Amino acid sequence: MPFKTLDELPPDLTGKRVLVRVDLNVPMQDGAVSDATRLQALLPTVLELSDRGAIVLLLSHFGRPKGQNRPDMSTALLVKPLTDLTGRSVRFVEDCQGTQAERAIATMTPGSIGVLENTRFHSGEEKNDLGLARAMAALGDYYVNDAFSAAHRAHSSTEGLAHLLPAFAGRAMEAELKALQKALGSPERPVAAVVGGAKVSTKLAVLGHLVSKVDHLIIGGGMANTFLAARGIGIGKSLCEHDLTSEAEAIMARADEAGCTVHLPYDVVVAKEFAANPPSLRTCNVHEVAEDEMILDVGPAAVEALADALKTCRTLVWNGPLGAFETPPFDAATVALARTAAAMTQDGSLVSVAGGGDTVAALNQAGVTKDFTFVSTAGGAFLEWMEGRTLPGVAALER
Asked: What is the domain partition of the chain in residue ranges?
């Protein structure tokens, strides 16, 4: 691996202070964590370090306090959920730098776990302020980054710290980087990418990068409408960014040059209103969409053809749904193709890596999240990786 992992830390860490950058930025509802996925992801690293005798000090942002001390965004709110999940006592440390934090940490015993206060209570965090990074580094002997979802940010706790202490990738970060390397770094070919979602504008850079990397580019969601419009196809009152049709044309031209096949739907599910199971629902050829109809999902014939294309591939990268999956029956295409990919993964014929919030929700809906090779909960970091950009928090860990 191009970065050090926990395997390269001393086996016995008794009394050593390990600063672990995690992602505690979880959704809360009525004072309780409503989705603990990110907290569960940190358990392997935190429990391993604790078992090896380290004093484990968790660093994270929580919300967007913009340098203000906000009680409603204090990481103290995460102490009980972390205590419940780890099955161990978790202590709150009232700052992430300085004398107060030093005093609290000095009283901690080997194997204990502490949650340091929100890093973004300091305005220097988001500026990657060296002084703040040095003050954080003074609290630890080692630095571990286990927050891939924050790795696209060059902040004091995600990037600056890695240059000031011996730096290592945690278990979740290690798994993520291994999966991403398998998917686009040195993948088994042919490679397919599914890119969906509402707007082309948010994924232009992704599409532009992927056409030179993959053999099959499957475009779905509202984005596909912009590509259909670029080909002169009438799409009725469907969601579409008409001002980006020239960019869509350019991406298709680059795909042709690179030998990448772009897949757009040729049958679609349409309705006159966007609602669950509307009476005007019908499936038609993409050339038969009426002026008062909107495209809300990929049709069954196109999904079957996409499944056939996928069956020729060895690697799949997936970001974004094929249709308006939150509203039935416009989840049908996403669910069907996800189940094909899951079945292929389970029989060993496909490496499947997916990421992004909507994608995770769609795969959960299809009941296949556990059947993919790897599903990343990261949003922005996963997208920037798909764009081919260097992630500062990852680059800082390289040997």
From this structure: 6-173, 187-386
Is 87 noted as a catalytic residue in this protein?
no
The whole model's pTM is what? 0.90
Q: Do domains 6-173 and 187-386 have the same CATH topology?
A: yes
Q: How far apart are CA 103 and CA 170, in angstroms?
A: 26
Structure tokens at 211: 């056409």
Residue of 38, 120, 203, 213 marked catalytic: 38
393 in catalytic set: no
* Active-site option among 88, 91, 134, 199: 199
Q: Confirm whether 88 is a catalytic residue.
A: no
Q: What angle do CA 113, 116, 121 make, to 5 degrees?
A: 170
203 is catalytic: no
How many residues can be counted in the chain? 399
The third-level CATH classification (topology) of the domain covering 6-173 is Rossmann fold (3.40.50)
Radius of gyration of the CA atoms of the chain, in A: 23
187-386 placed in CATH 3.40.50.1260: yes
The answer to whether 293 and 248 are in contact (CB under 8 A) is no
Annotated catalytic residue: which of 98, 234, 357, 388? Answer: 357
Burial code (b: 16+ CB inside 10 Å, e: under 16) for 188-221 equals eebbbbbbbbbbbeebbebbbbbbebbbbbbbbb
Give the phi and the psi of residue 113 in degrees, each rounded to 5. Answer: -125, 135
**C-alpha–C-alpha distance, residues 301 and 288, integer Å:** 15
pLDDT in tens for each of the 399 residues of the chain? 589 999 999 999 999 999 999 999 999 998 899 989 899 999 999 999 999 999 999 999 999 999 999 999 999 999 999 999 999 999 999 999 999 999 999 999 999 999 999 999 999 999 999 999 999 999 999 999 999 999 999 999 999 999 999 999 999 999 999 999 989 888 999 999 999 988 889 898 899 999 999 999 999 999 999 999 999 999 999 999 999 999 999 999 999 999 999 999 999 999 999 999 999 999 999 999 999 999 999 999 999 999 999 999 999 999 999 999 999 999 999 999 999 999 999 999 999 999 987 888 899 999 999 999 999 988 889 989 988 999 999 999 997
Pick the catalytic residue from 63, 98, 380, 388. Answer: 380
| Backbone CA torsion sign across 380, 383, 389, 391 | positive
